[in-house]
Automatic annotation (TrEMBL):
Keywords: Ribonucleoprotein, Ribosomal protein, RNA-binding, rRNA-binding. This is Large ribosomal subunit protein uL24. It comes from Arthrobacter flavus. SUPFAM superfamilies: Translation proteins SH3-like domain. GO terms for cellular component: ribosome.
Amino acid sequence: MGANKTVKFKIKKGDLVQVISGAKQERGGDRGKQGKVLKVFRESNRVLVEGINRVTRHTKVGQSQRGSKTGGIEVIEAPIHISNVAVVDPETNKPTRVGYRIDTVEKDGKERTVRIRVAKASGKDL
């Protein structure tokens, strides 16, 4: 992709997503796990998902200003590519694709058109 091109993602912060590729859970992977999107990294096409792709980070031990120890070994979530996750359908609790429905809403005496995200499988609003 071009450097200046912004891509429209169908996955947003706060969505419940499921990992659809990678190693199975029996082999220590994350495929099939569900979690909430904490952050979307547009420039690298990645998302940070709660409880998914946990990695061990070793940080240098130091002291904070209050005297408590900081650092050591901590487990944090790492970003995962956006193509490896899918939005979960609220009705069936299974991964689905995202579509859009255009509705007209009357607000302040004016009619406005709004795009509503919809689960392709069940047709329910996301």
